[in-house]
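Sharing in case it's useful to others searching the archive later.

Someone asked me privately for the predicted structure of tRNA modification GTPase MnmE, so I'm posting the question and my answer publicly. Question first, with the sequence:
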Amino acid sequence: MEFDTIAAISTPMGEGAIAIVRLSGDEAIPIADKLFKGVGGKRLKDAASHTIHYGHLLDPKNDEVIEEVMVSVMKGPKTFTKEDVVEINCHGGIVSVNRVLQHVLKYGARLAEPGEFTKRAFLNGRIDLSQAEAVMDLIRAKTDRAMNVALGQMEGRLSKLIRKLRQEILEVLAHVEVNIDYPEYDDVEEMTHKLLLEKAHFVREEIQKLLQTSQQGKILREGLSTVIVGRPNVGKSSLLNSLVHENKAIVTDIPGTTRDVIEEYVNVRGVPLRLLDTAGIRETEDIVERIGVERSRQVLKEADLILLVVNYSDQLTAEDENLFEVVKGMDVIVIVNKTDLPQKIDMERVHELSKEHKLVTTSLLEDRGVDALEEAISSLFFAGSLEAGDMTYVSNTRHIAILNQSLHTIDDAIQGVETGVPIDIVQIDMTRTWELLGEIIGDSVHESLIDQLFSQFCLGK
Ligand code: GDP
Ligand code: ZN
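And my answer, the predicted structure tokens:
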């Protein structure tokens, strides 16, 4: 494919000592060559691929020095975009990087749109759509584990599985064709039905397995929205502090947001907890009293995880009982705090109320029990699969929606075979499933969808 040459700053704004201006396209090397003056008059035009060159950028108009630079020359197709790529490393600082970018634009490059480098990699066949989306996830990854999921996806783990499923469907479709072409052979029809059911069930199961990982995948990507509830003085703020202090808090740096609406993430053994911000219901004292059981249920329902704190050194009150009532059926960890003080709580009753929940005892004052709490959090969301680092997760909303749709069409196909629907109708459902799965890896995606997807990327990626 033929594209113009694009350029952008590809390192985070204002961060680090080095900043990179990246160019991609047929003119990438000639444009850089116009500006570059290497030691001993070396020209970038003559440079071998994948080499780095020290020198200065000069404005060709007046020979004014723009920057002292290191320039990497990488010739396609062995580059991220499959096009010729030049990376100009400069001394950071927003002013100097911008100066370099401005000159590159002045001498023939066009400013890249957000995500355009990745889009090119996709359009040039270097990566498939799910891999491109993974690049975006990587940029936003909140914990190492989330990063690994994205990395796995970028390496094509999901794509590989999807391709395999599509291949299975194609094989069945080929058999169906034979059946339609040679209807006079009875046993062909019988075999086709058997094979259809077999493969359709196999594909169905694999899709379902993938969908089951989606909850975890989504949590890894977006964080687990967490609310701490309990009546006044039980230790909610102490719990919040200890979670934030023991675990590296990840503050997302979204431009344009002010400090008080920034969400706080803490990384609990690879599970990113998104502690709902102050405007939300991070700490809900008297929530039940204030808005009633039903309303508070609605509010808390938005949360993925409820940490319900009660006081070991105090009797259970009606308010405590109310809270247990409100959180019924949700993912709850009950925390019995202040175990360093004499017991007044009826633990038998607490166990009874916590039957469907996990329960830990803590003394936040003496810093005891927090490990057990973290263990409970991580086991709640990686039940049994904590070590399964090479699992294929689905975390992307678009992928989940498509998988749900294809589950539907494959079900139609299975039902069709079982109820004796004409085989060419079943064929349509199978074909539709094949098409849908193709949308995940971008084999049959509409152009505007592609534009929309890539526009979500950061600039310079
Ligand atoms: P909140 O009102 O639920 O947010 O409770 P706080 O976290 O503000 O704690 C209320 C009081 O209990 C503070 O004085 C804390 O220092 C104290 N506190 C918290 N956890 C413990 C604990 O485990 N043991 C004891 N003895 N005091 C605690
Ligand atoms: Zn408090």
